[in-house]
Amino acid sequence: MQYSTYIAILATLLRLTASQKVGTYTTETHPSLSSSKCTSSGCTTQSTKVVLDSNWRWLHTTAANQYTNCYTGSAWNTALCPDPTTCATNCALDGADYSGVYGIASTGTELTLKFVTTGANKNVGSRVYLMENDTKYQMINPLGGEFTFDVDVSNLPCGLNGALYFSGMDADGGAAKYPSNTAGAKYGTGYCDAQCPHDIKFINGEANTLDWTPSSTDANAGSGRYGTCCDEMDIWEANSMATAYTPHPCTSTGQTRCSGTECGDGDNRYGGICDKDGCDFNSYRMGNTGFYGIGKTINTSQKFTVITQFITSDGTANGDLIEIKRKYKQNGVVYENSASTISTVSGNSITDAFCAAQKTAFGDTNDFATKGKLKKMGAAFKNNGGMVLSMSIWDDHAAHMLWLDSSYPLDKSSSTPGVKRGECATTTGVPSEIEASAPNSSVKFSNIKWGALNTTY
Fold first, then answer.
1. 166 within a domain of the structure (yes/no)
2. Keyword annotations for this protein (predicted)?
3. Which 8-state DSSP code applies to residue 217?
4. Active-site residue flag, 237
């Protein structure tokens, strides 16, 4: 799952914002990040790039030669944004200083995302998307094949998440569907995930100003009436202590704006349109505590390769998804994923049977089955020619990342099956503390490849 991430102000002009129109204060230049498509004949380099999510960008008035903020701290400017549509007309989204402000750097095939970047003011975290070109996200459908990348999490302690995942976003960021969105994919618009986040400033080309409530834990964030939902395939949620991969199907198709019960908020978690829990495979949670971590079988003090295979019913990209397999490669050795040691749960991959057994063993609600299982997750990859690749670094204001690397939920004993997910203490992950104690943390993703089975590693 992907929870909200945040940044602080940049000088007196830059604020955490999103928009649909385009400003001219800073030229938008997308960092290059080469990737590869592979077949049995070899791999072909793709001239791909990355773009910063619109929610991190400065939002200001469209008035000529004026730069009044449309959003400051955790509040909208009510004069410029009296309602959602007027706000979209009055406000412009500007270009980004990727390295100087956001700590985002790329060289060849490697992308580095820094946790805290201190300039005139402090930036915390970031989220970027892989682009086919300057106006379109790269759509990827790995069904019947595999997706592979190298990762370095040696500089990610407890409480942080260096995530790489697929989101059911539109290739153009929603520009064609919503004419008021003139910024499109070029400025990182159109985000959605299975948590149906309410902190996104613009959804469906309109400002999310209605019922906007400032966050009680983050001075630069808030939430509005609407959420933005879509299928999500978490290939990689990890730090140096724990990792999980998790499909999150939704009953909807593509990016969908939600309100009320369909968002699945609060006590209605399982009444919404998306499976917020997903069906996760975390080696530590599944009983093998020596497989992943510092000095363990997959040694997180060094770079390694992550291979995820999407097995279909007929072996092609048109078949139904029936299994998601995981492999690792480090120092020239290929490792199969660790197997479950839970007595009633067998296997080392995600299947519908594994998910049903795991949910029963851990006493969890099987919303994964209710929302369509692996077949629906596979259907999301077929929609619009694939899904959008997201990469991020973030801390967790909602649950302190305990669901990934510690014992969670806190109202259950750590000895209860499924509660302990990693070795981190339940006191770790407090955003204010980790931002102060580990500001130089970072994650590095490199050598992104996708294609036929056993061709990318």
1. yes
2. Carbohydrate metabolism, Cellulose degradation, Glycosidase, Hydrolase, Polysaccharide degradation, Signal
3. S
4. yes
Q: Is 232 a catalytic residue?
A: yes
Residues 6 or more apart in contact with residue 22 via CB below 8 angstroms: 92, 93, 94, 182, 183, 186, 187
Residue 434: what are its φ and ψ, rounded to 5°? -75, -30
Mean pLDDT, residues 373-400 taken together:
97
For residue 21, what pLDDT is reported? 72
Q: Is residue 84 part of a domain?
A: no
Amino acid in position 83 = D
pLDDT of residue 292: 98
Taking the C-alpha atoms of residue 445 and residue 283, their distance in angstroms, rounded to an integer, is 21
pTM for the whole structure:
0.94
30-48 pLDDT per residue, tens: 999 999 999 999 999 999 9
The SS3 call for residue 398 is: coil
At 14 the pLDDT is 34
Pair type for strands 387-395 and 160-167: antiparallel
pLDDT, mean of residues 346-366: 98
- Sign of the C-alpha dihedral computed for residues 239, 110, 59 and 123 taken in this order: positive
Q: Residue range 276-286: average pLDDT?
A: 98
Distance CA 185, CA 167 (A): 14
CA 233 to chain centre: 9
* 208 sits in which H/E element: none
**Active-site residue among 28, 232, 262, 435?**
232
Q: Give pLDDT tens digits for 397-443.
A: 999 999 999 999 999 999 999 999 999 999 999 999 999 999 999 99
The H or E element spanning position 31 is: none
Distances (CA, A) of 105 to 113, 118, 212, 438, 439: 7, 15, 33, 19, 16
Q: What's the CATH number where 369 sits?
A: 2.70.100.10
Cα dist from 243 to 18, 306, 377, 409, whole Å: 30, 11, 20, 17
Give the type of residue at 315: G
Report the distance separating Cα 43 and Cα 412, nearest Å. Answer: 48
Residue-level pLDDT at 120: 76
- pLDDT exceeds 60 at position 2: no
Domain presence at residue 457: no
Beta strands in 33-144 (DSSP E): 35-39, 42-46, 49-52, 59-61, 71-72, 75-76, 91-93, 104-107, 110-114, 116-118, 122-124, 126-133, 136-137, 139-140
Give the three-state DSSP class for 435: helix
Catalytic residue among 28, 237, 262, 435: 237
Count up the domains in the chain and report the number: 1
Q: How large is the average pLDDT for residues 265-271? A: 95
pLDDT in tens, 218-237: 888 999 999 999 999 999 99
How many Cβ atoms from other residues are within 10 Å of residue 225's Cβ?
Answer: 18
User: What is the residue range of 266's domain?
Assistant: 33-53+99-452
- Residue 23, in any domain of the structure: no
